[in-house]
Fold:
Amino acid sequence: MAIDNDTLDQLLAGRDPQDLFAKDGLLDELRKALSERMLSAELDDHLENEGAAGAINRRNGSSRKTVLTGTSKVTLAVPRDRAGTFDPKLIAKYQRRFPDFDDKIISMYARGMTVREIRGHLEELYGIDVSPDLISTVTDAVLETVAEWQGRPLDTCYPLVFFDAIRVKIRDEGFVRNKAVYIALGIQPDGTKEVLGIWIEQTEGAKFWLRVMNELKNRGIADILIAVVDGLKGFPEAINAVFPETIVQTCIVHLIRNSMSFASWKDRKPIAQALRSVYRAETPEAGLAALEAFEEGHWGRKHPAIVQSWRRHWDQVIPFFAFPEGVRRIIYTTNAIEALNSKIRRAVRTRGHFPGDDGAMKLLYLVLNHAADEWKRPPRVG
Structure:
């Protein structure tokens, strides 16, 4: 329902414009008035339904209740009934927060703000003093959603899945450890991106990856055409143990970055340029010939470890040459997974470390969920 200009003039008459949006200003008054009117209407409806069922019940005054909104504290006069059977839907009997309050906290948490920062933000902008326990309670509620999301059914087939890891600091058994968080990003046949899951590494190596693959299979995936991995030892074997027909492709970007780690800053640009002839070759034979030429050239002789790295992963590099240019470009650039990693790094940068796996999981879920909402256009192929 639109508010006409005459009504607005009456609401604004005699008010200081600076006070309209302030704590206890016009907006808070409107929220209070509207909420009390809705509660009164709810009680009217409740009494009407009980009367139609033959029950005798009536109003019994009101009680005061202070609730947190997204911007302030509001004290409401909540109507009561004599039988005590009225439980309002707007603000339930034991509820002390409007839904938008929880949404605001979760939104700030998803953007990487710590509990202390959220408290300071609410205090500074809205004059609301919120305990750390309340903020933790609100964000912990996300874990139920995470569990449902992590176990949801998946599509039968994904043409392309990126498996990548990012390391975060998590307190575990009294020590802060660097743990690997794995993200699986699926590309559907129409190009739509979907985060398939998040896993925090609990055990080392192949056993962990085998568990992840079996989990994906149990959630409905029957086939992955191409799996792009970061070259970790044992990962390709774990994938093919569960999905034997899957083509496992080493991420070219990771190989290049690993190559750069052997060289000084001033050498990196010309080395990257020289390696282009390897991964841009038309065939595996031409790519291997280009790698041998690199090995015999200036940079190969100066940094032999680069060639050794490429040779160790060559079996997982070879499939790349069979793909058309459009598919190569998607596999090579890995823009989607890199964009996700960038968002995660920004969110965890100020935290130092997480108190446990659950704390890391709920933040990562919120960051990835927020990123998924921003995806609009599928990548172009061909």
Remarks:
- The CA atoms of residues 204 and 245 lie 25 Å apart.
